[in-house]
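Model it.
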Amino acid sequence: MPGTPRSESPPPSPGKHAVGPSPSPNPAAPLAGPRSPPQTLLPAPPSDALTRSRRCYPPGVYGEQRRGADPHIRVLWLIKGLGPGGAEQLLLQAARVVDRERFDYSIAYVRPDKTHLVPEFEALGILPYRLGSKHGGRLGWLRELRSMIQDADVVHVHSPVLAAATRIGSRTVAGGRRPVVVTTEHNEWTSHRLPTRLANALTEPLDAQTWAVSDQVKETVWRPLAGRYEVLIHGIDGTSLLGQRATREEVRRELGLHDDEIMSLTVANLRRNKDYPNLLAAAERAVALEPRLRFISVGQGPLESELGDLHRQTRLGESFMFLGFRRDIPALMAAADVFTLSSAHEGLPVAIMEAFAMGLPVVATAVGGIPQHVRDGIDGRVVPPGDPNALADALVALAQDPAARRRMSESVRSRAPKYDIRSAVATIEQRYAELASAGASRK
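Modeled.
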């Protein structure tokens, strides 16, 4: 079917040090149209990093092996899954620049179907553990969660449901082994279901530190709690992205694009909050007005079938291609002329910060932290959410104005260092050290 991705191949079995599944899904490619560009994989980590990573033991062994003489501050990252979403990408990019001399990092996740980034973490010497892999049932992961958190000095949670469970679970751990709990809120509170918001409202005071990824995310938090949130722009590893670039001409050739065609790239999972119907409607109007426009989407998710049906109802054909999950985002960004995001809800999209690093003008909707970071008319165009005509008109205007694209490209490149993840990691690790030293835990 033109414009829709192939299903992914089953993942391989995990390495001997990993517990739970460790997939390496093949990149999806369109059923019709051009070949996908070659994938860029991370290099193997230094041997000392691998040695250090083997302190990541499963529950029941984890604590006995690691407590004692180890001088490292033990940090456990918790996240719902390791799919290709924004929070997961932030963790992966942070993992590349963390201080291995002072901190010993572990990561655990819950969803067995969200394992796309496991190989990347393994390559960096941080071996993910899937909670619930030893205990069956829907809530088996809760038993293992308590076992893991009591063996950490700091637990940093990146998922609201997991955060509520961890806060409560930490209070059942004896005082001498109780970890400090910190959390990061990546999304607007209005995007969460009511039970999730209630659980977080009741348990958030148990955090020793709570961060929000943008001012807008903080503004959506219930007012009595908002004062406890500190805004921290987490950023990206732009150096790593630039190192994975491919030749623009090569990638465009493999995508089947002609030199005079204008490529719009979207990197967003196929979920409701990304509002792909808005993007498809805008693309149909834009291509009718400017036939040189071509749309490429990277992402996977539960709406794959629904969006495939919607695509067939348009006249877009191969002017809009869904590529599915990909590991070569920098290569695709090198081939693109503009980055487009049509979301209905956001925090601060990682993909926009990546687009800045790659020098791509951004056309996006005015949601979450986007209007604060994408300056309309300077870094790109910001349009109202849910307005496909406005989105299409902005894309057509940029497609027909190469001088504006060059000017915006220079602007975003100059601002990219502001989003260097090393600054955020330094702030976070300083806070880890302060809290671990003080043994801070709210009673």
